[in-house]
Amino acid sequence: MPTLNPFRSYDEKDVINLFAFDGTLPATKGTLVKVSTGWKSSDELEMLGSVGASFGNTVSQRYGVTAKVAVAGATDAPLGMLLFDVKETDENGELLKFNPRKAAEMEAVLSGQSVPIVTKGIFLYSGATLASDAPTAGAALYCGAAGEITTTAGSNVRVGTALGAKDSNNGVLIKLDL
After folding, report:
1. Which residue segment(s) compose the domain that 66 sits in?
2. Which residues are CB-neighbours of 53 under 8 A, at least 6 positions away?
3. Domain tally for the chain?
């Protein structure tokens, strides 16, 4: 599972806020994603269903965006990397749809909401795949299985460069460039 640590340097112009996540939840920040349903200017918001319990003579709908991204595979060309987690509950199992302030503090969005996707920048990244690799400064990084970053080339798409070796916590400073 990828982990995007707090050390980050990116420009807001390199962040795309038009797509919702389409896949198994929770999705963690640092996951590389690809477009699964494209964006169109004529798209309207879609109704996702009731916020909670349904009662007579009341309307309580959740709305979401129709353009979607999914986890990028090893040979897919990724659009970018998730900056926020996508989840429905907090660490105590409480529904985040009833506590949007806590969702914002956790850097999380709900399913159906647009998730920020970054295409360029410098990040402190760690993931199981990169932790088992031995990246060195200047090494090319590629999109691996399950949206993780790897040093294994093969037929994988290049996504950036390692700016150093692993630290004691398996974190690697990477330059993402998509």
Report:
1. 3-51+59-177
2. none
3. 1
Q: Could you give the CA distance from residue 124 to residue 61 in angstroms, rounded to a whole number?
A: 38
Mean pLDDT of successive 10-residue stretches along the chain, which has 178 residues: 90 96 94 94 76 69 88 94 96 92 95 95 92 91 93 90 93 95
- Tell me if 140 sits within 8 A of 150, measured CB to CB: no
Tokens representing residue 44 in the block? 């309207």
Three-state secondary structure call for residue 44: coil
Residue 133's identity, in one-letter code, is: D
Residue spans of alpha helices (H) in 10-164: 100-105, 128-132
Amino acid present at 53: A
* Residue closest to 133 by CA, chosen among 144, 121, 122: 144
CA-based R_g, the chain, Å: 17
Question: In whole angstroms, what is the distance from residue 157 CA to residue 107 CA?
Answer: 28
